[in-house]
Design goal:
The complex is a heterodimer of chains A (about 110) and B (about 120). By secondary structure, chain A is an all-beta fold. Chain A contains no helices and eleven strands. The chains are: A mainly beta (about 110), B mainly beta (about 120).
């Protein structure tokens, strides 16, 4: 069966460090992968999209990598700040525009 | 940027009544909208795909007669939870993506917290 797994339910890091979140998938052929941020009681907010033929994408302090051989995406936040504390969701979309989400990783950045 | 407005943000209703949730794309046309349900500390689960002018496509296990979806225009989709029961209490979120937004992901509404008492 199709699975999308985000490495840990929760991740705690110190302010200024780099946060690295992992998204692994099985039995899925994504056309592209997205990362979203979700704050409590709010809808997800789009951060980055990376296509199957792309290795890396950057946006300000954010970096996403996509390895279709390993079936894995890594999401990095450099110079993390307490305001980065939120739940981060990865989502995979196939060629039929069928999008599925991982369970999310709750990131806490401590000052 | 693309904005999706979802209303209401929260609602409390009595068991057995129906509740309607609206999802509007404010500055773009959305031929397709998606409805999700999210339980506490869990991920978003796709309930149905709403297509303008045609019937919604429901995911396996989602009762189409209980969760009525109407997508009558390119900017509005509604989800009606009929004969709501306490187990329907959840966070409901809609999303949409306009044409030409293929590099910008999907835009989500702010969600509706439904509590059935």
């Amino acid at each position: 069966s199709q699975k999308i797994e985000q490495n840990s339910e929760a991740l705690n890091i110190q302010e200024g460090k780099t946060a690295t979140l992992t998204c692994n998938y099985t039995n899925y052929s994504p056309a592209y992968l997205q990362w979203y941020r979700q704050d409590p009681g709010r809808g997800p907010v789009f951060l980055l999209l990376i296509r199957e033929n792309e290795k890396e994408k950057r946006k300000e302090r954010l970096k996403v990598t996509f390895d279709t051989t390993l079936k894995q995406s890594l999401f990095h936040i450099t110079a993390s700040q307490p305001a980065d504390s939120a739940t981060y969701l990865c989502a995979l979309t196939n060629n039929n525009n069928d999008m599925r989400f991982g369970a999310g990783t709750r990131l806490t950045v401590k000052p | 940027g693309a904005v999706v407005s979802q209303h209401p943000s929260w609602v409390i209703c009595k068991s057995g009544t129906s509740v309607k949730i609206e999802c509007r794309s404010l500055d773009f046309q959305a031929t397709t909208m998606f409805w999700y349900r999210q339980f506490p500390k869990q991920s978003l689960m796709l309930m149905a795909t709403s297509n303008e002018g045609s019937k919604a496509t429901y995911e396996q296990g989602v009762e189409k007669d209980k969760f009525l979806i109407n997508h009558a225009s390119l900017t509005l989709s509604t989800l009606t939870v009929t004969s709501a029961h306490p187990e329907d209490s959840s966070f409901y979120i809609c999303s949409a993506r306009g044409t030409g937004h293929s590099n910008y992901g999907y835009t989500f509404g702010s969600g509706t917290r439904l509590t059935v008492v």
